Amino acid sequence: MSEPIEVRRRLHEENDRRAAQLREQFNAAGTLVVDMVSSPGSGKTTLLELTVDYFADSLSTAVLVGDVATERDAQRIREAGGPAHQIITGGACHLDAHLVADGLESADFDLPDILFLENVGNLVCPASYDLGEDFKAVLLSVPEGDDKPLKFPAIFSRAAVCLITKSDLLPHLPFSPEDAVRHVNLLNPDSVILQMSAMNGDGFEEWCNLLEREHQAKRAALV
Question: Do residues 15 and 98 lie in contact, with contact meaning Cβ atoms separated by under 8 Å?
Fold first, then answer.
């Protein structure tokens, strides 16, 4: 069993080296990088469509989209007015630093003020990979259930931001926001938790304000 473990260790070491190089590149450009993680259907692409539109006149944004197949999500972002480049993982269940680096080389945009990495829909594998990001944001949609953090503790313990999405469905589903917050806080007491709905706008301004603050703080720290 030692050989598979050694192979995985080397893969992670190689990923971390490439991620460190990416982080230097992002820092040099003053780019805030957010790794967006969720299970499929939690609303990542919809949230990003709204976000790139919100910042259209104030901050430059771009999205690297990771999917097993199709360019559908990247096309949605472009139709919303934001530069986007699709990374087809060819079966891999997550983005890694090498895929991100290759995607940046192929993308037809320069590093923006805020770069979003829309990870493959998966709550397990993306938790273990550094992509050179400033922070991870994990989405927990109301239809998934308020116990999801306890079932997938790694990503909820590592994500600096937790977005409880599709909150407009709360009257119709047995989801307790209080329990969800408690479960997240058990894993990560420092996590910023926002309750959001793309349908009615709840929490969206708070999300954009958070991004603006983080971008300003990164630029100030690099001066």
Answer: yes
Q: What are phi and psi of 81, to 5 degrees?
A: 105, 5
Structure tokens at 37: 């993680």
Cα separations in angstroms, 16 against 11, 71, 189: 9, 27, 26
- Tell me how far apart the alpha carbons of residues 85 and 73 are, in angstroms, rounded to a whole number: 9
The fourth-level CATH superfamily of domain 2-222 is P-loop containing nucleotide triphosphate hydrolases (3.40.50.300)
pLDDT digits (tens, 9 = 90+) for 106-126: 999 999 999 999 999 999 999
Residue 211 phi/psi, 5-degree rounding, is: -60, -40
Q: Which residues of 41-65 are buried (b: 16+ CB within 10 A; e: fewer)?
A: ebbbbbbbbbbbebbeeebbbbbbb
Let me know: does 126 contact 46? Beta carbons within 8 Å: no
Calculate mean pLDDT across residues 151-168: 98
